[in-house]
Each structure stands twice: as structure tokens, then as C-alpha cells.
Amino acid sequence: MKTLNHNKNITFLLSLLFACQYFCAQDLDSIYKKLEIDLLRFHSPIVIKEVDSILHKNEVSGFIINDLKALKVEALAEYSFFVEALNLSNEVLSIKDSLSERAEVRIRIQRALIFEYFEKTKEAFSELDRLEEIYTTRIKYRYYGQYLFRKSSSYRVLKPVEKSDSIALFYANKAAAFGDLYKYYDVSAIAKMLQSFFVDKNDYINRTRLLKASLKDFKLLENPLSVSMMYTSLARIYQKNKQLAKARKYLDSALTEAKVTKDLYLMSSVFKQRSIFLESINQQDSALYYFKKYHNAETEINYEKQNLEVAEINFKNELKYHKLEVLKSKSELLESKKNNYYLIVFSIGSLFLIGLIFVLYRRLSKKNKEVFSRNEKLNQSINEKKVLLKELNHRVKNNLSLIISLIKFQSKEFDNDIYKESFVHLENRINTIVIAHEQFIYSENEIEGKFYNLQEYLQKISEPLINLSTRKIDFKQKVKNIRINLDTALPIGILMNELISNSLEHGVTNDVLVIRVSIKSDGNNIFINYFDSGSTFKVKENNNSLGLFIIDSMIAQLNGTYTRKGSAYEIVLKHKN
Fold first, then answer.
1. Considering its fold, how many domains does the chain have in total?
2. Residues forming beta bridges with residue 572, ordered by sequence position
3. Is the pLDDT of residue 131 over 90?
4. Is 11 within the bounds of a domain?
5. Dihedrals φ, ψ of 196, to 5°?
6. Which of 174, 273, 346, 530 could form a disulfide with 232 if both were Cys (CB 3.0 to 4.6 A apart)?
7. Residue 560's domain is classified under what CATH number?
8. What domain range is 402 assigned to?
9. Is the C-alpha dihedral spanning 326, 329, 331, 333 positive or negative?
10. Is the pLDDT of residue 224 over 80?
């Protein structure tokens, strides 16, 4: 009878365990489907935080872990965290025993996107070839459509020749038909947008037709980001074709969509396009207003990304801390068993002295190991912080380089020499900051330093300006051995960039333009004498001159004063502590 009751209890417990696992699996499956919908609606931060939260609870294992990580890979790629997405995808693909088909397909589509972004042709098409192998024998569902339009985009971007364009259009058409047939609106919308790229630029009727069809599908998908982007794309086409009323109408719709969703990416995109439109119709005050709103939105986006990165680091640190706690508990349990053993030995009178000496010896040995272990952990922590600091500086450098690249691309859209010249000036100003970052912060040798050589910094600023000029220039600079901190160096660098640029642009000479720079310091003050041989100076001294405004601002920032006669400056600046 007892055996029978015992068997019943075991059966009951196994049934209860199975039921718990079943309902937990059902719950995770519903969460997975919800996160898929969030991805379609571009709610990437929500997906990342939700997946991290589930994995942190350590309540899932096996295939579902990699399914969730695959969702996170897509969210990271959608949020432009390409390096993090690639690293996580490598981790998931390395564990083939617990890799589901849906996780592999999702990850390889994102890897193809990432490699396309970094122009890694071989790697991108390797991922696409693997997807083609999968879909040769597998059921074709939503992600098959994404594979089709990703292949179209890869041919268009990575192999830009006439034959490849026809292949790219073939896959775009195939993706659009597939999306329309099965009502996968994300597939059909993006495919139709790709189709519009292959329409002749002057055939704006067909282009707008395809973009409107794409807009319609994005609306059905309830993807506000894409809807707003399509509105702005259509507005851009109408603006280009002088249909300003329609352009304003679509921009108004984009702005309305952005205000309802309060999405920072939408706000940034719409504010920027609206500023460009208003500037094109000479509404300068309104254009400036929306440019400021665009700048504020971009600042908030960068802040949000930084918070997400910090949360990611904190999550990883918490996992490490959790593992250390588990090891500590095991160590404490082991120590408890040892103490019990020593207590038994201690109870035996004949072995009391030997047991006591043994215990003392072991404790002393353990303390030495703990001290050694703590020192190792402290050194490891210091090294990790150095690596994180270098990574942060590396990202700052990349972002500054990206800004310069964007300025170069933007300048190519203008035929007006005045606008192009303004972009060149802007690029030189930002490049001054890049040089300061590379020399004063990013340099591996100077990462913990405080004071830097001014002459080397100014040489890196002046040489590109002189070398790129088509004029004959006799440039010499004499800089005493002055060591200054970053807060002093950066304004001086920007100041010298403006002075040299003004001389190169506005100094009128018959033959050779002579430029002389002399800088010295008496400890508290920095004295700068600047001169060029221009006979006249074409720039009017008024409040609308950005170059003169920057010169005044940099001098004021260092509590300085200056006098100017023609193109000669005598400047006195203060060191910043």
C-alpha cells in the first residue's frame, strides 16, 4: 500500500511539473509573438529590454533562448547597433545544437543587412546563399519575403552594374508579389519602395505611384516610422518637381504622425525635411525653428542610445555578479563542510593539537589566496575600464568621422558654390575637433595624460588647409614649446582654423600669399600674432559673418582680447585650468 501511494505521489509531481513547463512555454510563445509585432512597428528598445529581462530571470533554456536572442539581434540591427548585433549573432550561430530554423533565418537576414551596410560583398552573399539553401526545401513564410527584398537590396548596393540592377529589380518584383499574395505588408511595402529606385529619376509619376503603394502597405502594418518616412520621401519628390502645395501637404502629414507617436526618430526625420523645405521657399525663420527642433531630437536620440548601451553593460555586469554569487555560495558550502570536519577532528582529544595547527594553516592559506584573488580582480577591473574608455573614445571618433562624411554627401546635393563653400568650412571646423580628439584623448599614449604640445596640434590643423589650397602660399608658424590642456587647445585650434581659412579665402594678393603665425606664453597668458600679406580683405565686418563670430567666440571663451589692423591680429588669451 505504501509503495502504491508513493508511486501516486511521484506521478502527481511529474504531471504538475509537465503542466508548469507547458504553460510556461505557452506564455513565452505569446511573449515571442508580441515581440515580433513590436519589431514590425519599430519598437526596438522595448524588444531589447524585454529580452534582457527574460534572460536575466534565467527561466528559459534550449531553443527558446536562441529564439529570443535572434529577436534581440534584429532589434539591435533595426536600432543601428550593428557591431553588437553581429557579435550576438556569432554567439547564437556557434551553438548549432540548440539553433531553431526561425532563429537562424532571422539572424542571417540581419547579418546580410549588416554586411551590406559595411560593404562586405562576399560575406553578405554568403548569408543569402545559406538562406537560399534553407528555402529550397522549407515552407516559405514572411521571412522568405524579407530574404527576397534583402537580396534585391544587396545586388543594388553591392554590385551596381547594369546586369545586377536587372537582377535586383527581379527580386524586388518577386518580393512585392509575394507580400501582396500573403498580405505580408512589411515585405510588400519595402519591395515597392525598392522598385521605385529603379524608375528613371525624371519619371516622378511612376516613382510617386510606387511610393504611394508602399505608403499604403506601411499604414496597414501600423508602422508609424515607415509611414512618416514615406510621407517625407513623397514630399521631397513633389518639392523637386516644384509642386510645393503637395510637398507641404505630405510634410504636414508626416509631422502629424510624428507628434502622435512621439517617436524621436520620426521627429528628427520630419523636422529636418521640414527645415529644408521651408528654407527652399525662403521662410528662413521657420526653417531655423525646425532645424533647432531637429537638432534637439538628434541629441535626445543619442542620449537614449547611450542609456541603452549603459543598460546593456549593466545587464552583463549583473550576470557576472550573479555567477560570482553562485560560486561564492558553493565556496561557503564547501567551507562549512570543512569546518564540520575540523570540528569532528577537534573533538578527538588525541588529535586536538594537530587539528588546530592544520585549521590555522588552511585559514592562513585561504586568506593569502583571497588577497591574491582580490588583487587580480582589481587589476582586471582597471583593465576593463581602460578598454571601455578606449571603446567610448573609438565610438566618438567614428561618430565625428560619420558627421564629416554626412556633410560631404550633403554638399554634393547642392550646385550652388556658396552652399558648397559653407559645407567645406563646416567640415574643416569639425575636423579641427577630430584632430583634437585624436591627439589629446584618443591617443593610446595620452589616454591618462593632462597636458599636450600645442605646436603639433596646430601643425595638423594648418597643413591640410594649406595643401588643399590652389594658391601659392608661403606659410610659417613659430610656436614656443607650450604645453596646454584640452580646454585651452580646442578653442585655439578652432580660432587658427578660422584665421587661416579667412586668409586663404579672402586675402587678395598678386602672387604669393604670405601667412605668418607666432605664439608664445609667459605662464599665465598666451600671445598670438597672426598676419597675412593680403592687400585687401573682402569680408565685411558685420554680425552676419560666421567666421568672425567664431573668432570672437573662441577669444571670449579663453577670456582674451585682440586688436586687428587689416588682416593682422594681436591676440592675448588666458590658460584654462
1. 2
2. 527, 561
3. yes
4. no
5. -65, -25
6. 273
7. 3.30.565.10
8. 348-449
9. negative
10. no
